[in-house]
Amino acid sequence: MVGILSLPVDILTMIMVIVATSGNGARDLAWISATCKDFKEVAKQASVLKMLNFRDSISTCTLDYRKHRHPKDILFLCARYGNQIAESSFGKGILDGDYWCWLMTFLNSNPVRDESGSIICGPLWHPRLVRSFILHGRCQHISKIFVPLHRYIVSNSILKETRPYCAPSEIMDMCQYEQTRADILSYITQYAKSTGRPIEDFMVEPNKRPTSLAHRENVIAVFDLLFPPPPF
Protein backbone atom coordinates (compact mmCIF):
# COMPACT_ATOMS: atom_id res chain seq x y z
CA MET A 1 0.00 0.00 0.00
CA VAL A 2 2.79 2.42 0.94
CA GLY A 3 4.53 1.69 -2.35
CA ILE A 4 1.43 2.53 -4.36
CA LEU A 5 0.80 5.74 -2.44
CA SER A 6 4.35 6.88 -3.14
CA LEU A 7 3.60 6.99 -6.87
CA PRO A 8 3.12 10.40 -8.53
CA VAL A 9 -0.44 11.71 -8.51
CA ASP A 10 -0.62 11.47 -12.30
CA ILE A 11 0.13 7.75 -12.15
CA LEU A 12 -2.40 7.19 -9.36
CA THR A 13 -4.98 9.07 -11.39
CA MET A 14 -4.26 6.91 -14.42
CA ILE A 15 -4.71 3.78 -12.31
CA MET A 16 -8.01 5.11 -10.99
CA VAL A 17 -9.21 5.88 -14.52
CA ILE A 18 -8.43 2.30 -15.54
CA VAL A 19 -10.41 1.05 -12.55
CA ALA A 20 -13.26 3.48 -13.28
CA THR A 21 -13.60 2.31 -16.88
CA SER A 22 -13.54 -1.40 -16.06
CA GLY A 23 -16.60 -3.62 -16.37
CA ASN A 24 -17.60 -2.97 -12.75
CA GLY A 25 -16.12 0.50 -12.59
CA ALA A 26 -18.50 2.14 -10.15
CA ARG A 27 -18.44 -0.76 -7.70
CA ASP A 28 -14.67 -1.26 -7.90
CA LEU A 29 -13.96 2.44 -7.47
CA ALA A 30 -16.23 2.60 -4.42
CA TRP A 31 -14.44 -0.41 -2.90
CA ILE A 32 -10.95 0.98 -3.50
CA SER A 33 -11.94 4.43 -2.23
CA ALA A 34 -13.16 2.88 1.01
CA THR A 35 -9.77 1.30 1.69
CA CYS A 36 -7.69 4.46 1.79
CA LYS A 37 -8.25 8.18 2.27
CA ASP A 38 -5.68 9.04 -0.41
CA PHE A 39 -7.40 6.77 -2.92
CA LYS A 40 -10.70 8.43 -2.08
CA GLU A 41 -9.27 11.85 -2.87
CA VAL A 42 -7.88 10.69 -6.21
CA ALA A 43 -11.19 9.00 -7.04
CA LYS A 44 -12.96 12.35 -6.71
CA GLN A 45 -10.92 13.92 -9.49
CA ALA A 46 -12.83 15.14 -12.51
CA SER A 47 -10.93 12.94 -14.97
CA VAL A 48 -11.92 9.84 -12.99
CA LEU A 49 -15.57 10.72 -12.43
CA LYS A 50 -16.05 11.67 -16.07
CA MET A 51 -14.99 8.17 -17.13
CA LEU A 52 -16.69 6.18 -14.36
CA ASN A 53 -18.49 3.17 -15.82
CA PHE A 54 -22.05 2.58 -14.61
CA ARG A 55 -23.02 0.26 -17.45
CA ASP A 56 -24.01 -3.37 -17.16
CA SER A 57 -24.04 -6.20 -19.67
CA ILE A 58 -27.13 -4.81 -21.40
CA SER A 59 -25.09 -1.80 -22.63
CA THR A 60 -27.65 0.86 -21.69
CA CYS A 61 -28.17 2.26 -18.25
CA THR A 62 -30.48 4.63 -16.40
CA LEU A 63 -29.88 4.97 -12.68
CA ASP A 64 -32.62 6.21 -10.36
CA TYR A 65 -31.95 9.94 -10.09
CA ARG A 66 -34.40 10.16 -7.17
CA LYS A 67 -31.82 8.43 -4.97
CA HIS A 68 -29.12 10.96 -5.86
CA ARG A 69 -30.67 14.35 -5.17
CA HIS A 70 -27.66 16.01 -3.58
CA PRO A 71 -25.07 18.37 -5.12
CA LYS A 72 -22.22 16.28 -3.66
CA ASP A 73 -23.64 12.89 -4.61
CA ILE A 74 -21.22 10.95 -6.80
CA LEU A 75 -23.77 10.44 -9.58
CA PHE A 76 -24.50 14.16 -9.73
CA LEU A 77 -20.78 15.01 -9.68
CA CYS A 78 -20.23 12.58 -12.55
CA ALA A 79 -22.99 14.29 -14.52
CA ARG A 80 -21.46 17.67 -13.74
CA TYR A 81 -18.15 16.47 -15.19
CA GLY A 82 -19.75 15.17 -18.38
CA ASN A 83 -20.23 11.47 -17.63
CA GLN A 84 -22.91 10.54 -20.15
CA ILE A 85 -24.50 7.72 -18.16
CA ALA A 86 -24.87 10.02 -15.16
CA GLU A 87 -26.21 12.73 -17.46
CA SER A 88 -28.68 10.20 -18.84
CA SER A 89 -30.09 9.49 -15.40
CA PHE A 90 -30.76 13.16 -14.70
CA GLY A 91 -32.00 13.62 -18.26
CA LYS A 92 -34.80 11.24 -17.37
CA GLY A 93 -35.50 13.48 -14.39
CA ILE A 94 -35.78 16.48 -16.71
CA LEU A 95 -38.36 14.69 -18.86
CA ASP A 96 -40.17 13.53 -15.71
CA GLY A 97 -40.44 17.18 -14.69
CA ASP A 98 -38.44 16.61 -11.52
CA TYR A 99 -38.03 19.91 -9.67
CA TRP A 100 -34.60 19.09 -8.25
CA CYS A 101 -33.13 18.14 -11.63
CA TRP A 102 -34.38 21.36 -13.19
CA LEU A 103 -33.13 23.40 -10.25
CA MET A 104 -29.63 21.96 -10.60
CA THR A 105 -29.46 23.05 -14.24
CA PHE A 106 -30.18 26.62 -13.17
CA LEU A 107 -27.71 26.54 -10.26
CA ASN A 108 -24.90 25.05 -12.36
CA SER A 109 -24.83 27.45 -15.28
CA ASN A 110 -21.05 27.83 -15.44
CA PRO A 111 -18.45 25.49 -16.98
CA VAL A 112 -16.57 23.22 -14.58
CA ARG A 113 -12.80 22.89 -14.43
CA ASP A 114 -10.51 20.04 -13.53
CA GLU A 115 -7.72 20.10 -10.96
CA SER A 116 -5.38 21.92 -13.37
CA GLY A 117 -7.91 24.67 -14.05
CA SER A 118 -8.83 23.52 -17.56
CA ILE A 119 -12.49 23.52 -18.56
CA ILE A 120 -13.62 19.91 -18.61
CA CYS A 121 -17.32 20.37 -19.23
CA GLY A 122 -19.76 23.14 -20.01
CA PRO A 123 -22.73 24.28 -17.93
CA LEU A 124 -25.22 21.66 -16.78
CA TRP A 125 -27.41 22.39 -19.81
CA HIS A 126 -30.70 20.50 -19.66
CA PRO A 127 -30.76 19.59 -23.40
CA ARG A 128 -27.39 17.89 -22.90
CA LEU A 129 -28.89 15.75 -20.14
CA VAL A 130 -31.92 14.85 -22.26
CA ARG A 131 -29.69 14.07 -25.23
CA SER A 132 -27.63 11.67 -23.13
CA PHE A 133 -30.83 10.01 -21.92
CA ILE A 134 -32.03 9.47 -25.49
CA LEU A 135 -28.72 7.81 -26.36
CA HIS A 136 -28.06 5.83 -23.19
CA GLY A 137 -31.38 5.30 -21.40
CA ARG A 138 -32.69 1.79 -20.91
CA CYS A 139 -35.10 0.57 -23.56
CA GLN A 140 -37.80 0.15 -20.89
CA HIS A 141 -37.62 3.88 -20.21
CA ILE A 142 -37.09 5.12 -23.77
CA SER A 143 -40.17 3.23 -24.95
CA LYS A 144 -42.35 5.45 -22.73
CA ILE A 145 -41.04 8.92 -23.55
CA PHE A 146 -43.07 9.85 -26.62
CA VAL A 147 -45.29 12.35 -24.81
CA PRO A 148 -42.67 13.69 -22.34
CA LEU A 149 -40.02 14.15 -25.04
CA HIS A 150 -42.34 15.77 -27.55
CA ARG A 151 -43.71 18.05 -24.84
CA TYR A 152 -40.15 18.96 -23.83
CA ILE A 153 -39.24 19.81 -27.43
CA VAL A 154 -42.34 21.94 -27.92
CA SER A 155 -41.72 23.79 -24.66
CA ASN A 156 -37.98 24.38 -24.95
CA SER A 157 -36.85 24.36 -28.57
CA ILE A 158 -35.41 27.62 -29.86
CA LEU A 159 -37.13 27.14 -33.24
CA LYS A 160 -40.51 28.41 -32.14
CA GLU A 161 -42.08 28.46 -35.60
CA THR A 162 -41.40 24.78 -36.33
CA ARG A 163 -41.05 23.06 -32.96
CA PRO A 164 -44.69 21.79 -32.71
CA TYR A 165 -44.09 19.70 -35.84
CA CYS A 166 -40.60 18.42 -35.09
CA ALA A 167 -39.74 14.77 -34.62
CA PRO A 168 -43.08 13.10 -33.71
CA SER A 169 -42.61 10.33 -36.28
CA GLU A 170 -38.95 9.83 -35.33
CA ILE A 171 -39.83 9.69 -31.64
CA MET A 172 -42.69 7.26 -32.26
CA ASP A 173 -40.47 4.95 -34.33
CA MET A 174 -37.85 5.01 -31.58
CA CYS A 175 -40.38 4.28 -28.83
CA GLN A 176 -41.95 1.39 -30.72
CA TYR A 177 -38.56 -0.15 -31.48
CA GLU A 178 -37.41 0.21 -27.87
CA GLN A 179 -40.66 -1.34 -26.64
CA THR A 180 -39.92 -4.38 -28.79
CA ARG A 181 -36.42 -4.55 -27.32
CA ALA A 182 -37.87 -4.25 -23.82
CA ASP A 183 -40.32 -7.09 -24.45
CA ILE A 184 -37.57 -9.36 -25.77
CA LEU A 185 -35.29 -8.50 -22.86
CA SER A 186 -38.07 -9.19 -20.37
CA TYR A 187 -38.69 -12.61 -21.92
CA ILE A 188 -34.97 -13.47 -21.89
CA THR A 189 -34.65 -12.31 -18.28
CA GLN A 190 -37.57 -14.46 -17.15
CA TYR A 191 -36.31 -17.46 -19.10
CA ALA A 192 -32.81 -17.09 -17.67
CA LYS A 193 -34.25 -16.91 -14.17
CA SER A 194 -36.35 -20.03 -14.74
CA THR A 195 -33.29 -21.98 -15.89
CA GLY A 196 -31.01 -20.65 -13.18
CA ARG A 197 -28.50 -19.43 -15.73
CA PRO A 198 -27.05 -15.91 -16.06
CA ILE A 199 -28.73 -13.68 -18.62
CA GLU A 200 -25.39 -13.22 -20.39
CA ASP A 201 -25.68 -16.83 -21.63
CA PHE A 202 -28.64 -15.81 -23.77
CA MET A 203 -27.34 -12.47 -25.05
CA VAL A 204 -25.81 -12.12 -28.50
CA GLU A 205 -22.21 -10.99 -28.42
CA PRO A 206 -22.01 -7.17 -28.75
CA ASN A 207 -20.08 -7.30 -32.03
CA LYS A 208 -22.76 -9.56 -33.56
CA ARG A 209 -25.82 -7.59 -32.49
CA PRO A 210 -27.78 -5.59 -35.06
CA THR A 211 -27.47 -1.87 -34.53
CA SER A 212 -29.92 -0.76 -31.88
CA LEU A 213 -29.13 2.94 -32.04
CA ALA A 214 -30.47 3.76 -35.51
CA HIS A 215 -33.84 5.04 -34.29
CA ARG A 216 -32.25 6.91 -31.41
CA GLU A 217 -29.77 8.53 -33.78
CA ASN A 218 -32.62 9.68 -36.02
CA VAL A 219 -34.16 11.45 -33.04
CA ILE A 220 -30.77 12.88 -32.06
CA ALA A 221 -30.30 14.30 -35.56
CA VAL A 222 -33.49 16.35 -35.18
CA PHE A 223 -32.77 17.12 -31.53
CA ASP A 224 -29.38 18.63 -32.38
CA LEU A 225 -31.00 20.95 -34.90
CA LEU A 226 -33.51 22.14 -32.33
CA PHE A 227 -30.98 22.45 -29.50
CA PRO A 228 -27.62 23.61 -30.88
CA PRO A 229 -25.06 23.55 -28.06
CA PRO A 230 -24.24 26.98 -26.63
CA PRO A 231 -20.66 28.26 -26.59
CA PHE A 232 -18.96 28.37 -23.22
TrEMBL record:
<dbReference type="InterPro" id="IPR036047">
    <property type="entry name" value="F-box-like_dom_sf"/>
</dbReference>
<feature type="signal peptide">
    <location>
        <begin position="1"/>
        <end position="20"/>
    </location>
</feature>
<keyword id="KW-0732">Signal</keyword>
<protein>
    <submittedName>
        <fullName>F-box domain, cyclin-like protein</fullName>
    </submittedName>
</protein>
